[in-house]
Amino acid sequence: MTVSEHLISSREQAAPWIETPLKESYALSQAAGCRIFLKLENLQPSGSFKSRGIGNYILRRVEDLELPANNNSVQPHIFSSSGGNAGLAAVHASRTLGLPCTVVVPMSTKPLMIAKLKAAGAHDVVQKGATWQDADSHLRKDVMTQAGSAAIYAPPFDHPDIWAGHSTVMHEIAAQTPNGPPDAVICSVGGGGLFNGVCQALDDLGNTSTTVLAVETEGARSLNAALEAGELVTLDDITSQATSLGAKRVTQRSLEYAQGSNVKSVVLSDAEAAMGCWRLADDERIMVEMACGVNVALCYDGRLEQALGRKLRKEDKVVIVLCGGSNVTLDMLAKWREEFGWVEKVIRKDSGKAPVPSAITAPTGQH
């Protein structure tokens, strides 16, 4: 058996991603005024939805691999550039196939994520550059050249095979949502891989009724800026603490999807993203990172109605893709609440509505 045949056989034994639960949240439903469902992508092997797209991409490249027929000892080597989550997905997918994986991350990547990459079994973790684009350039120009023909480059978001992998999350949502498709799906946007996958699946399903809320933070709003300009825009810098959203430019396909009638672009602050994290921890005992918390923040204090531009009905079904929870700790949640606790001054007290747990735990005098 050749190396590539062995790897393809391994694929049949274990996939790099799993089907995740869709959980209705009664606390978030109470806060939002409609039925809120959580797609628990934080339970993926790598801790984020990227297990789907990166895993599918690596599987496709293994199938395409052409190694010398007389040299079965040549082992493919996966190379990933990432702010953290894509690298984790690449490492986990590579380990599923018994392959080494080297990850290059920007200098902004926190020690926690570096430690997780190493603990997951990365062959090497290299820090280089101020942004993901800088890290990616270093990976392709300098690091990968040492591996020769055995090198497989795994981009974090910009490839149709990645979008196809991510599309599986929407197909699962369609099958798991009770009594028909959701009225809206909320997903955050970095480079656009998850967003592309969701929109692709809706097209495949012939679903024109579900609204997609594409959510970004102010310091990483590359999609929103592109929509305003009517063309792709490269941000000067990423200033958001939601570093997993830190792509200065989205894919062309993301812009095309976002210009559709069923997509709404939403931009929230880092403070709101952090609030989404600590309130989800209070309300559902789930810890997620800021790039995911920005989605959850829409459930609170009227933000979802504002984003949709209409009054919510109690029977409306809204799915939040809990995209990841790798880059978060209890200490980080506490620090975010200390830094951004002022945002809870605007917690709304609707008469006749029972408060959710996170409203009770808001700082004294700030609600």
Automatic annotation (TrEMBL):
Gene3D superfamilies: 3.40.50.1100
Domain of life: Eukaryota
Pathway: Carbohydrate biosynthesis; gluconeogenesis
One Gene Ontology term, aspect cellular component: cytoplasm
E.C. designation(s): 4.3.1.17
Cofactors that this protein relies on: pyridoxal 5'-phosphate
One GO term of the biological process aspect: L-threonine catabolic process
Keywords: Cytoplasm, Gluconeogenesis, Lyase, Pyridoxal phosphate
One Pfam family cited in the UniProt record for this chain: PALP
Keyword Glycosyltransferase attributed: no
Reaction(s) catalysed (UniProt annotation): L-serine = pyruvate + NH4(+)
SUPFAM superfamilies: Tryptophan synthase beta subunit-like PLP-dependent enzymes
CDD domains assigned to the protein according to its UniProt record, in alphabetical order: L-Ser-dehyd
Cellular compartments annotated: Cytoplasm
A single GO molecular function term of this UniProt record: pyridoxal phosphate binding
Domain Tryptophan synthase beta chain-like PALP positions: 19-324
Signal peptide: none
Family: Belongs to the serine/threonine dehydratase family.
Protein name: L-serine ammonia-lyase
Organism of this sequence: Lophiotrema nucula
